[in-house]
Amino acid sequence: MVRSLCFSFGVVLSMIGLAAQRPLPKAILIDGHNDYPWALREHDPARDLDTLDISKPQPSIMTDIARLKAGGVGGQFWSVYVPVELQGQSAVTATLEQIDIVHRMMRKYPGTFELALTAEDVERIHARGKIASMIGMEGGHSIDNSLANLRMFFRLGARYMTLTHTANTPWADSANGPVEHHGLTPFGEAVVKEMNWLGMLVDLSHVSPETMAAAIRVSEAPVIFSHSDARALNDHIRNVPDDILKMLPENGGVVMVTFVPGFVSAKMNAWNSLSKDEQARQPMPKVTVREVADHIDHIKTIAGIDHIGIGSDFDGITQQIPDLNDVSKYPVLETELARRGYKDADLRKIMGENVLRAWRQAEQVSKRLQAERGPSTMLGPKQAATTPAAGPIEITIERTACFGVCPDYKVSIKGDGTVTYEGHQFVRVTGTRTWRIDPAAVAALASEMQQAGYFDLQDEYVARVTDNPTTWTSLTMSGRTKRIKDYVAGPPKLKEIESKIDQVSGVKQYVSPDRKDDDALWSAAADGDARAITALLAAGADAKQVRGEDGVSVVMQAAASGDAESVRMLIDAGGDPALRDRGGRNAADRARDGIEMVRVHPERNLVQATGRPRQYELILKLLTEE
Ligand SMILES: [Zn+2]
């Protein structure tokens, strides 16, 4: 064991040369992000540590024990990353498996590693010459919308969680977008607060700037960026904008500068966005340690020396910086910083003391919060909402005439927003009609049906009183189709779904008006409230309605109100401008009454709720020209 270690050291020293001596050999060096656990999983699905035994040189990856020691690593956050392609329970299981790797590493290499659960552990383990090992979760999808999962991951040793990876969670936006929540939802805020309660660091690498700002606003403890650079030097979505950097002094947070070439160098970022053909024609830019130091300089200028750390992302990257390409190379960066005039105290902060200080603060906050309250029992959004529907969406509702009176029609809604209606009998419009609605509304309806347990409902409900069938609904999404036959006495949940389909499709106006909408339209016409009229007509309220013993039409009501727009809309929606009441008077007569009233009592031409003075002249013109 000792011999093989000596051999490894020899190999490493010849690889890195004698120049790579740390300027401050005793200062603790803590790295925020190393993906060895994922590298192991990629090499061996069984995740046998012997497959990539890091007590021996492992030149195919960036990490092994000899190089960790040569690099002077004193504390390492091991990432238990799982890709966002894993969602729900699969993400939880895979995260547990990755955490298990770290625990097995501790067991396999007890002389080298020890699990650190507190900032104090890190110092104690480091003082004994071992590498303090911390667990960092990379992506909120790992907790599957459950604060209980979050707490159990903390118990297993996780000490930071990146709020998202490259996809939004149902509660936080990722840097990779799209903008969905504008930062954090209320549940997202609860996740941050629960992390504060636990003493788990909130990691904002990978999240959108809005999520960064929201988390910093909500968090009572310092946040970290476990592996990100400064956006001012390279406009990459994974980097931290200056306005966020400016929030760090107050929050106490730390940006752990990463060695990912595409995040460090704007030239590399541009090259990465070229097509394969263009890349073949242009040489790949060479990124250097000096550019990494430039990010440190910048963060120092904007946020200050207390807010900088190191988060290499070794073994999580496909490109590398030649002089900073494995865990033995940290001294190269330290030497560059010393050359730039960073004092010993500054170097100690950057290399590890800052993140330890942030962690200690988070522990203090946790202690205080746990004295104040218990764990949160808030429920997260259901997992179904996170998995976007794959494949075509189609939703249909088919109603048959019940007892010879209910409207008999079929509506089908496609994922692209196309609605097809077939009216049979007892409906306002018979025959086929097609229209379009917002495709986002279709997707939302489909996932709402899925969340309501539509796929788990019984195929057919048997009525207790009568076997007269009333409705069929069906949902196709993510390659599944379910069709349910509902009788009069079906479950309330299904009834809700049925009326939701009617509502979202906009079928109501073809089927039958809602009595309540008609009443509301009647009042809106009397008030001359054109905006309310627009909404009610869209909902299917009847513009042709005539009421009372006098036989007054809704158009007459609007004409008397003095709002021309209301009159015009009702006529467009089928209201008859020429209709006469029992007394033989029509809408135009009411406009003439209004003109006379305003002539005699000019003060009555007050500006109405509609924001306009009464417009009887205009209405008369409208009615007589129709
Ligand atoms: Zn990452």
Estimated share of beta-strand residues: 5-15%
Tell the overall outline: elongated
Which ligands, by name, code or SMILES, are bound? zinc ion
What's the CATH architecture name of the largest domain? Alpha-Beta Barrel
- The total count of strands amounts to 17
CATH evolutionary superfamily of the largest domain: Metal-dependent hydrolases
- Number of contiguous helices: 25
Account of the 3D structure:
The protein has 626 residues and is α/β, with parallel strands linked by helices. It has three domains: 24-369, TIM Barrel, CATH 3.20.20; 388-511, 2-Layer Sandwich (Mago nashi protein), CATH 3.30.1560; 515-625, Alpha Horseshoe (Serine Threonine Protein Phosphatase 5, Tetratricopeptide repeat). It is 42% helix and 14% strand. The strands form three sheets. Strands 1, 2, 3, 4, 5, 6, 7, 8 and 9 form a nine-stranded parallel β-sheet that branches. A hairpin with a 2-residue loop joins strand 14 and strand 15 (480-487). Helix 21 runs parallel beside helix 23. Mean pLDDT is 89; it is low at 1-19. The structure holds zinc ion. Zinc ion (ZN) binds at residues 138, 206, 227, 316.
